[in-house]
Specification:
The structure holds 2 protein chains of 2 kinds.
Chain A (H helix, E strand, L loop, with lengths): L1 H48 L6 H31 L1 H6 L5 H31 L10 H25 L2 H18 L7 H7 L1 H7 L3 H13 L8 H27 L3
Helix pairs in contact in A: 1-2, 1-4, 2-4, 2-5, 2-9, 4-5, 5-9, 5-10, 7-8, 9-10
Chain B lengths: L1 H50 L5 H7 L2 H21 L3 H6 L4 H20 L2 H9 L10 H25 L5 H19 L3 H7 L1 H7 L3 H14 L7 H27 L3
The chains are: A mainly alpha, B mainly alpha.
Chain lengths: ~260, ~260
């Protein structure tokens, strides 16, 4: 039984990879455009405004986190449109695969799309930022773990949101009522210790926000600075948040689709 | 002529009536929640982290943050045209009653009014929350309103034009990623023109062709009253001029698309 599920899961992932390969160049070029815009802003505009050079690299990592969020938002809309009109998901539900396995295939697809578009940009961005982003103190193993956990976290929560909310509510309210507060009260753009210096209560609130651990974990494993949150703490919190997200995803999916 | 005007007015009332159903939510989001969040992030935390709590540049940075709201709100007001053209085609019924030109002008007028009305509370809310950090002693409020109106008109005309040229909803993502995002990010959302010019003169001169730059510069000039930014009359003239150009392009494209005679 489990072999059947695994086989169907693999077939779905293979199909998604095939589709992804076709759209790779376009997605990559779109990513390059965003990357160049962000590099110009962080490398040139902000220092001319008076921002210290040491903030360039952490800020750039924040923009990569933002890209992950934007990409997941687009994927959520795709899923909502499918739930609203095309309903390809109904075909998938009749395949020899259980709903949790089906959700796992969705999450895998989303993670693959995130990795294809953002991982080259992290390397390219670091190269373009030059001395402002020294690549000497990278902890590759820990970074890969945090990056994968972050991708899993975003995929799980955004997929769950696309099941939990209606299309109209999502389009009109999701960004201002969910994402804006999450982004505002997190350390996604600037290091947590700098936010705490400016506004201690914002620092305290952001500790309850998983997005803080995504950005801080990436910073701690990519940039030589000991002021960021401990990567192991980030891994622990992100793992916990992923478990909660998976539970929410399954319950919202069952509620929406009501598979017998 | 009088009949056309009365139909024009009826269509306008219909658009406002439809918008009213979701206005409570959208007004709460964009007139209260978003300004509060932007004040916290772009008006307080970000300038504090980047420039220090008392920097004079805090306000310069914060004023540009309205650009995203201008674009999103106008987009929301305009996008119905695209979905209608691709789906229900309620527009076909409208075309039997009104000329294509007046239909497009009505849509642009509606999107402009809708965007402008929802943008109005943005800065007063910010002032309430930021207090002395948002210094409005040198602010010319009539100039702020003038620039906001001209900005809403230009962006609405631009969005209606975009709706007239797109052939599928998924192309919207391309427009946002390839056009809108770079335009507003490099158009004064973060940094004023003189900083762009200092960072790269080539980019500075290229920015002169970016309509968002005139919105942000006009607002900064109206709020701060310093000569570091483009003068308000120049910004308003450029915004209105470009708005007319996009209106003309939208009219032409719409006529081509729906009326082949």
């Amino acid at each position: 039984m489990h072999t059947n599920h695994a086989r169907t899961f693999c077939a779905l992932v293979r199909r998604d990879l095939y589709v992804l390969r076709g759209a790779f160049v376009k997605s990559f070029l779109d990513g390059i455009l965003i990357l160049l815009t962000q590099v110009v802003i962080t490398r040139y505009f902000f220092p001319y405004l008076g921002m210290p050079q040491e903030l360039i690299a952490p800020l750039y990592i924040g923009t990569v986190v933002m890209m992950l969020i934007h990409q997941n938002f687009s994927l959520s809309i795709e899923n909502l449109l499918d739930l609203q009109s095309e309903r390809i998901i109904e075909y998938r539900l009749i395949l020899p695969i259980t709903p949790p396995w089906l959700m796992a295939s969705y999450i895998t697809r989303w993670i693959l799309r995130m990795m294809v578009t953002t991982s080259p940009l992290i390397i390219l961005g670091a190269l373009l930022l030059g001395p402002a982003f020294p690549l000497t103190n990278i902890q590759p193993g820990l970074f890969v773990v945090i990056y994968l956990l972050s991708a899993l976290l975003f995929a799980t929560y955004f997929l769950a949101s696309s099941f939990a909310y209606s299309y109209d509510w999502f389009i009109n309210n999701f960004w201002p009522r969910r994402l804006d507060p999450i982004l505002t009260f997190s350390a996604f753009l600037f290091p947590w210790y700098r936010i705490t210096d400016v506004c201690w209560w914002a620092g305290v609130i952001s500790l309850a926000n998983p997005v803080t651990y995504v950005a801080e974990g990436c910073r701690a494993t990519l940039i030589a600075n000991t002021n960021y949150l401990n990567p192991l703490l980030c891994i622990a919190i992100l793992s916990g948040a992923c478990i909660v997200g998976a539970y929410w995803l399954l319950s919202s999916m069952y509620k929406r689709l009501d598979p017998v | 002529m009088t009949q056309s005007l009365s139909i024009f007015y009826a269509f306008l009332r219909r658009d406002f009536y439809n918008a009213w159903k979701t206005t409570k939510d959208i007004a709460f989001n964009w007139a209260i929640l978003v300004p509060v969040m932007y004040v916290c992030m772009n008006g307080y935390i970000q300038p504090g982290v980047m420039l220090g709590k008392t920097s004079q540049l805090n306000m310069v940075m914060f004023i540009g943050s309205i650009l995203l709201s201008v674009q999103v709100l106008s987009f929301k007001a305009s996008i119905e045209l695209l979905f209608d053209l691709l789906g229900d085609r309620f527009i076909d019924y409208q075309l039997t009653l009104l000329s294509p030109r007046l239909i497009i002008i009505e849509r642009i007028f509606f999107a402009t009014c809708y965007t402008f009305a929802l943008l109005l509370p943005y800065y007063p809310m910010s002032k309430l929350l930021l207090g002395d950090l948002f210094n409005t002693q040198a602010t010319s409020w009539p100039a702020v309103i003038l620039v906001l109106t001209a900005s809403a008109f230009l962006i609405s005309a631009y969005n209606i034009f975009i709706c007239c040229i797109l052939n599928a909803p998924h192309e919207l993502r391309k427009v946002w990623v390839r056009i809108n995002n770079p335009l507003f990010m490099l158009g004064g959302f973060w940094a004023p023109w003189y900083v762009v010019m200092k960072a790269s003169p080539i980019l500075g001169y290229l920015s002169l062709a970016n309509p968002f730059m005139y919105m942000s510069e006009g607002l900064r000039s109206a709020f701060l009253g310093t000569p570091d930014f483009f003068p308000v009359p120049l910004c308003v003239a450029v915004l209105l001029g470009l708005g007319c150009v996009f209106t003309f392009l939208a009219l032409r494209q719409f006529k081509r698309r729906v009326d082949h005679i």
